[in-house]
Amino acid sequence: MAAVVATMVVGPLVKIMMENSSSYLLNQYKVMKGMEKEHDILKRKLLLVEDIITDAEQAAADAEQAAADTEQAAARRAGAVAWLEDMKKVAYKANEVFDEFK
């Protein structure tokens, strides 16, 4: 008698748990698939940002050699250097996020 009652109670409970588990796993799979797509997009953008940083650093170095040492040129270089440092920090943080995602 106890076995019949246990079967009547446990059977539906196990079925509900399996349905909930499979639903949860399916949702997690969908989230991860979406994250992979976003990861690829962000990685491509990060590569572009890194290229821009490299080009800007080269341009700043070229401009520093070519420009007369005027106050205005120095101010522009200082602003460009500050911007490049900010961009580098963002790029490093993005790389850290990508490393954690792997």
Automatic annotation (TrEMBL):
- Would the keyword Repeat be found if you checked this record's keyword annotation? yes
UniProt cross-references to InterPro entries, sorted A to Z: Rx_N
Q: Which GO terms describe its molecular function?
A: nucleotide binding
Q: Which residues form the Disease resistance N-terminal domain?
A: 14-101
* Keywords on record: Leucine-rich repeat, Nucleotide-binding, Plant defense, Repeat
What are its GO biological-process terms?
A: defense response
Keyword RNA-binding present in the record's keywords: the answer is no
Which family does the record claim for this protein?
Belongs to the disease resistance NB-LRR family.
Q: What is this protein called?
A: Disease resistance N-terminal domain-containing protein
- What organism is the protein native to? Triticum urartu (Red wild einkorn)
